[in-house]
Amino acid sequence: MCDYEQMVADLAVEHRAKDALRRLMAAGPSATRALRGGLRHSDPVVRAGCCVVLDHFLDAEALPELIANLDHEDERVRSWALHALACDRCKEGECRPGEDDVLPITLRMLAEDPSRFVRAQAAQLLGKSNALHRPDVIAALERARDTDAHPNVRKIAGRFAPGGSVYRRVTPGERMSAKAGPRRPYPRKVRGGAAPGDGASARLTSGIAT
To answer: In the prediction, which pLDDT does 192 show?
Structure first.
């Protein structure tokens, strides 16, 4: 097992995970092959951690695995995979999926994902993108604001929908200064100490504000 593969494996070990992620972030694109393998790992903690690194150092070869993880049973994996695909501002390399590629995915996740964390992530990513003033994005945010089952998703969507505090101060094509999604390089603990999913996946949050 090469060093990068060991680092990926260490993401599943709680007392090694933060150091492993730090080293993978420092390795950047050099670790892509191991990260792609991690996106197929049986532990959702490992998959989500690999998405965190790829969020900054996205490689075109990893796109199929990231897209496949949008259908993973663990909500944190889906949320981080979506963020890695759709958040342009976190990217440090030249691989940046086009708006026409990622926007339909983000719209679908906002409308259909069963997890409020993933839907809130999708609402933030739509609102903090250059697509904010597109008619289909406006319609999706208004629909989430008015009809989503969870109040937090409705609140986030409402900020970016017409009439919301963010929409009013953002002009077409202008990018917000704040980043969408996680502020830390490693996923935070779930507030209150509880998390959906099994014990292993509880070590990761969905990567969005609650």
So the answer is: 30
Angle at the Cα of 108 from the Cα atoms of 102 and 110, rounded to 5 degrees: 105
Which amino acid would we find at residue 16? R
Which pLDDT score is estimated for 204? Answer: 45
Q: Return the pLDDT at 145.
A: 97
Ranges of the chain with pLDDT below 50: 173-210
pLDDT for residue 90: 77
Report the C-alpha gap between 127 and 166 in whole angstroms: 8
Q: What is the per-residue pLDDT for 184?
A: 38
What CATH code is carried by the domain that includes residue 95? 1.25.10.10
Give the number of other Cβ atoms within 10 Å of residue 147's Cβ.
11
Domain residues for 181? 3-203
Indicate whether 41 belongs to any domain: yes
Q: What is the pTM of this model?
A: 0.79
Q: Are 205 and 195 in contact (CB under 8 A)?
A: yes
CA distances from 118 to 86, 125, 157, 205 (A): 13, 10, 13, 11
What's the CA angle centered on 200, arms 197 and 202, to 5 degrees?
A: 50
Distance from C-alpha of 108 to C-alpha of 102, rounded to nearest angstrom: 10
Cβ within 8 Å of residue 151, ≥6 positions away: none
